[in-house]
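User: Protein folding is very new to me. Would you mind checking the protein record under this note? It all follows right here:
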Amino acid sequence: MDRSIEEISQLKKILMLLGIVFIASNLRAPLTSVGPVISEISNALSLSNTMAGLVTTIPLMAFGLLSSIVPKVSRRYGMAVVLLASLILLSIGLVIRPFGSLITLFLGAALVGVAITVGNVLMPAYIKSNYRKNIGTMMGIYSVAMNLTAALAAGFSISLGKFTEMGWKGSIGVWVVLSLVTILIWLPQVKKKREVQMTSTLGQDEVKVNMYKSKVAWAVTVFMGVQSLLFYCLAAWLPKVAITWGIPSEEAGWLLSYMQFAQLPMTFIGAIIASKLPNQRLLAIGTGVLFAVGIVGLLLFQTTGIVLWCVLIGAASGLAFSLSMLFFVLRTGSTIQAAELSGMAQSIGYLIAACGPPVFGALFDLSESWFLSLVFLVLMSMILITSGTIAGKNEWVK
């Protein structure tokens, strides 16, 4: 009897771990799969570059506008239930996005954005609630799953279109299979007694904290926003920067892949190391320094050593993302607070990030050189260091 109970308990733990990994795998792949086929989408639907850009911009704006609302919805219905609803919404969005008119393309993009927003905000809080003794390891696994599928989605997007014989529709539509499988894996979590996870590490969830009046919360928010801005600027513009410097377009595309794959070990190792340190200030400062060194390398040497600069930037991005996710749980005393800090930081942070690529491009238009654009990123690295110095202190929001 005891052995049977133990086996059931182990199965539940495995299903929860699989659920977290699969949800994480859905949070970036539907977005990164679009970039490589954006030209095909534009040609097929006769879109201008501005209109085509909305396919990826709409989800990013959803992150910024809706992240602060998610914790309130979660408190009413429960994290597991809201996450399940988001997976269903994601599946609908992924089906609608490639198989209709221009209106359904944008509607699908909006649904995808709303669904991913829920996962972005709630998963760190869910991990905090269920893995208090292994937060660093679990946040590392979560981050790696998210970024690995993001890199694979970008790398295999065109190949998937050919494999399915559906072109760009297959490239961005095939990810509905992953979301449907995730729904099945996640169902056992919904059957649990409703929201055991909405408990405090201190048993004091009733203590309210106004995140918008907390210095620590604002530092975490700025850190989250600036690291996202740096990543999205380079994800959007690095290939074009390299092409203008004389690198062939195919090789320029691989530079972005090098950057993304360099993120993976840092997202995992960084979270584990950071969770075991008394504070994370040195790691946060080091992240900004790594960004600055990589960007200054591009600025001064351009194509000379460009792979090295991309790898350094990727490592910095992986560590910065990992720290951002970890701050949500390390700087709060309860699951509810973690969700609220996550909501605030991602809401404002992604709005900050959304401003980055247009500014980067505008500075190039202004000077007809990438110099000012890259200097802008160096300045952002300095802000990352400053905010990281505060966010990295061993201090809860209050």
User: Anything to note?
Assistant: The mean pLDDT is 85. The domain at 2-190 is CATH 1.20.1250.20 (Growth Hormone; Chain: A;). The two ends are 47 Å apart (CA to CA). Residues 335-367 form the longest helix (33 residues).
